[in-house]
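STRUCTURE:
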């Protein structure tokens, strides 16, 4: 593996075929998509209810077994992401970790997670450049 544990085109495992710039672009596109696909429906909900009543929003997540399964699945993903991202941000010396929980609950995990991964790629590239 290259400096600071940041693989370029190839690393010792041979499985890193994408460079840091490509990953950054992919994570950025996924983050933008995450905003678009979630907020399309959030805005519909806001229009239908004349605002964003959180109690109604949460209740609607549990409207049936399928929705409940997806909602609970996302809760577990959010918990795992927040624990991991906190540790990873500390490990890499990334500042302002507190913004990711705000983005997670204020926008969507579909945005916050790829945004964190994008910022993580940028941080690892900066660390590799200075090592």
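SEQUENCE:
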């Amino acid at each position: 593996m290259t400096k600071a544990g940041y693989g370029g085109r190839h690393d010792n495992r041979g499985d890193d075929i994408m460079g840091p710039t490509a990953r950054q672009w992919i994570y950025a596109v996924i983050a933008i998509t995450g905003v678009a696909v979630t907020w399309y429906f959030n805005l519909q909900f806001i229009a239908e209810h004349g605002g964003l009543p959180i109690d109604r929003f949460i209740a609607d997540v549990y409207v049936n077994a399928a929705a409940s399964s997806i909602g609970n699945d996302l809760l577990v993903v959010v918990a795992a992401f927040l624990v991991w991202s906190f540790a990873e941000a500390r490990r890499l010396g990334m500042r302002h970790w507190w913004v990711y929980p705000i983005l997670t609950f204020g926008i969507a995990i579909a945005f916050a997670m790829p945004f964190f991964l994008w910022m993580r790629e940028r941080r690892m590239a900066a660390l590799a450049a200075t090592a």
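REMARK: The two ends are 13 Å apart (CA to CA).
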